[in-house]
Each structure stands twice: as C-alpha cells, then as structure tokens.
Amino acid sequence: MTADVLTPLLAGVPLLLGVAGLLLPPGDGGRDRRRSAALLGITGAALALLITVVLLIVVDDPVEVTGHWVTFGDLPVTLGFALGPAALYVALAVTVVALFVQIYSVAYLHDDRRYAPYAAQVSLFTGAMLLVVSANDLILLLVGWEVMGACSYLLIGHDRRLPEAPAAAVKAFVVTRVGDVGFLLGIAWLGVAAGSFRISDIIEHIGAPTTALLLLLAGVAGKSAQFPLHTWLPDAMAGPTPISALIHAATMVAAGVYVVFRLFPLFAGSPVALSVLGVMAAVTLLLGALAATAQDDIKRVLAWSTVSQIGYMTGALAVGSPAAALFHLLTHAAFKALLFLAAGAVIHAAGTNLMSRMGGLRTHMPVTFWSFVVGLGALAGVPPLAGFWSKENVLVAAAHATEGGGPAPAWVGWVVWVAALAGVGITAWYATRLLLRTFFGFPRSRAEQWSVGFADASYEVYEEPEPHDPPGLMRWPVVLLGVPTVLLGLAAFLPGFRTALELEEPHLGVSIVLPLVLLGLGAGSAWWLWQAFPGADPAKALGRLRPLFAAGFRLDALQDRLVVRPVRALAQGVRLADERVVDAAVEGTGTSTTRLGTVLAAAHRAALPRAAVAVFTGALVLGLVAAIYGATS
Fold first, then answer.
1. CA–CA separation, 382 vs 516, rounded Å?
2. pLDDT recorded at residue 606
3. 505: exposed, middle or buried (C-beta count within 10 Å: 0-12, 13-18, 19+)?
4. Distance of CA 96 to the CA centre of its chain
5. d(CA 480, CA 371)
6. 306-340 pLDDT per residue, tens
C-alpha cells in the first residue's frame, strides 16, 4: 500500500513544487524570495530522494499503479507507473544529482536575478526525468520526455544577455525536436500494433516492427546526443555549469539510454535495429573522444566526453547487454556530475573556462584538485574507481558478442569492441591533458578583465583573481559525489545490486589487460608530451588534425550545408510561391471582382436614352441569335 501511494509521488512532488516555484514573482526580490525559491527547489529534490530510498527499502517486487486517463478511439491511455529495482537505482542517481545541483546552485548563482525561475525549472526538469523513469505508459513517458526538452531550452538559455546562450538553447530544442518527430511516430506505431500504450502490454505483444524501433532510435539519438544528432550538446555549455551537471550526468542524455533499456525485449528481436544502434554508438564514441582531445574550454572537454561515454552505454545495448549499459549509466552519473560541479568551482575561482588561462591551481585548490583526480580517474577507467568496473562490463559484453549467438550480429560486437578499446586510450589521453593543463605547471595570465564564468555569473573581475576552493555550499556536493565515484563500482560485488540490474558477477581475468595497457599508453603519452615540452599544450601533437577535432569534425558546417541551407531555400521558395501564386490568386480574384463591379456600376448609372438604346440593342442581338439558331436547326 505504501509503495502504491509513493510511486506516483516520486515524479509528482518535484513537478508540483516546480510549478509552485514558477508562481513566485519575477525579479530578484531580495533574500526572502531567493530563500523561498531555494527552499522549494531543495525540498522537491530531497523529498524525491527520500521517496526513492523508502521504495528501495520496502519494494521487493516491481510495483505497478494504473489508472485510466483517456481513450483515443479503441486505444486506452493510462496514468500508469511501474518501478522495479533497476528503475529505482536510476531514480536514486537522478535525485541525488538533482539535490546536489540545487544546493550547489544557491552559492554558484548567488547574485543571479533570475534564480527563482531557474530553481523552479530545475525541479520541473527533475520531475520530468523521474516521470520518464517511472512511467508504464508510452504517452505518459512522452509527456515527461517533452517537458524535459522544454526545460532544457529554458535552462540552457538562462542568461539571456549572452548571445550564445539563446542560440544554444534554440539549437538544442530544434535538434532534439527533429529526433522527437521519429520518436512520436514510433510510439504511435507500437501503440497501434499492440492495441495499447502500456509498456508492459507492448513488451508482451509478440514482435515489433523494425521501422517503429528505428523511429524510436531517432528520438534516442536526439535526446542522448548520439551521432548524427549530437551537435547540440557541446553548445549547451552556454548554460550555467550546474545545469551541465544535471543534463549531462543523470537526466536528459541518460533518458534515451533508459528508454531503450525499458524496451530492450523489443530491440532484442530486431537485429537490424541493434545493428543501427551499434554503428551509431561506435561512431559517437570515437567522435566524442577525439573531439575532446582538442578543446580549450574545460566544459566542452567534459561535454564531448559525455557524448563519448553515452556511446559506451548505447554500445552495450547494441551488443545485447542492457545490464552493462545501466551500470555505466549509474557510474557515469556520479563521476560526470562530480566533474562538472568541480569544473564550476574552477571557473568560479579562475574567472575563465579556458584551460590556456589556467595552470598551477593544484596548490590553491586542493579539494577541487583531488576531486578532479578522482573524477577523471573514473572517467578514464582507472581501477578500482567506479568507471573501471562499469566500462569493463561494456568491454566484456562486446567481446562476448563477437562470438555470435547473441541478439546482435557478430560484426556489431566487433565494431563496438574495437571502438570501445580505442576510446579507452583516447579518454585517458584527454583526461590527463585536462588535469595537467588546469592544475599543473605555471599559472598562466588571468590579469585581463572578463566576466567570471561562461554564461554562469554576472559579476566582473577587475583584479587578478586569487584562486581558492569554493565555499561550503559548492564544496560539499563535490566532495560527497566523490564517494559514489570511488565506491559505486564495488556495488557489483553485492548480490542485491547485481540481481536488480541483472549483472553478472565481476571477475578479473586477462580481459582487463588490454584496456589497462591502452589506458597507460594514453595517459603516459599525454604526460610525456607535457614533460618533453614544458608549458606546451599536448594537443599540439595533433598537428593539422587539431582544428578538425576542435570543430567536432565540422559536422555543424556539414549539417548547415546539407540540411539547414536546403531547408531555408525550400522555405524561401514556399514563401515566394505563397506570396506570388496563392496570395496573387486570392488578391487577383478580389481585384477582378472590384473592377467588374466598377464597370457594372457605371452601366447602371447611364442616362435613360442610352439605357434604352442598350436594351433595344440587346433585344435585337438576342433576336438575331434566336433566328440563326432556328434556321440552322
């Protein structure tokens, strides 16, 4: 009974408190209004976390709560919720990260005049993700999916004074909407085929059209920033850094992975869909990793690494291991949230996002430095940190898939395995470069005047800033996120956790040797370049490839040339056709009628003698016509 009541409240509480926060008067409003906004935001995340913990304690079997909502023809739509142990672990990751983001933001945006709507939108965003996690109806899931998209648009464009922020928000909204068109069509197709939108009913329905699954993958590619719809995510760094932690760690980019996880029995029956997913994952994994090697903006390094790490998750799904995908989703939520919040501390202290203007921060910011060491170690897969165990699961699953016999063709296993191995070395390289450029070497010039952060804060620095660790409200979330970053991987040894995720028992064998060798080569080569050329950026070793990698392989320009410009030209043609054909026809009809009316009005105003002549003439003409017709007939 307790679980039946709490399950709908998991998403409902942050959604309701988010709506309440939006009702607060706009503007700064002083300390009281900020306190009210912070209280609503933190309370919503804390209550959702409490509900999740209670459900983890009391729930042994999956909980389903269903109520009729509306009927489309013969298709019922339900207010259906379902939470199993795996879904609850995802909800735990979402609520923990959301709570830390809300607390962190109080200090990070301490002088932001629009903090109140920001906190409310974070609550709505959190509730929408929890709705995606708990929904047992595809239409209800779609509601959460689209609310997340709307909130991401608002949060990325939070600082409207910066031209790049609104542009990045529009880009994120439009690119994800492109994928969502396919997602909506896929949901409709599955619902009609199964006669229900309930996820449990759709999974029980034998088989699913491959085309419907490919349409769903379009939405997954958009929301989870997978090739070719990944281009919005690096530009989303224009939003406040805490939002980057929320979007890139446990919510929006994880939503697509989680949807495929929920519907995996359908994908397992479609080798074509898994093959498409595998190729998409391998390309995204390598593309994101290589692009991260050449970035100067610390947040863009982490953004491209997110693109790459999501590729590991979708790769695990493609080779038939949803458990490995979910495990990496959970560990990634911990260490990527840690890295983004720690990056916010560096930006807050150094006054810039650019690593070329950092350096030597290790002694000034020891807490932030060690947080970065732990987070980057987990990102690279250094044992025994969390990322090592989850990434190893992905590699083992891909290696097993190369033998065939799984739901995906053997060649998909080879593609994912080779890409994942290459990603290990590249990830270690750019993680080491980031650590060295930011915290080691000599401090580089920060004497110029600039705004602190990038779309993050509104105050100016007029003197050389003295770097320091962040205040308590920013420091403690970073420190506490270090705990799961270090220990979460060891949860794979706990029978209850393995059962919930359906993980295999971890075993250390010869399979870990090659990834560790590649990790050592990647990190060692970056360190060697740093030592061999003191003060030089290791990315210079990329040579002529560096501008290509820094521009994300210029896929933005390619999309502009192949998609944006043709669509604009088509729109221009449609506009001209509308103006010169459709409008001309409508306006021409009116003009012709008006002119004809003018002629007839002149005839009606004719003098009587002229009118009589006209009548008699007309009568004579009609008589002649009648006589001719009669004679010929």
1. 8
2. 66
3. exposed
4. 18
5. 10
6. 999 999 999 999 999 999 999 999 999 999 999 99
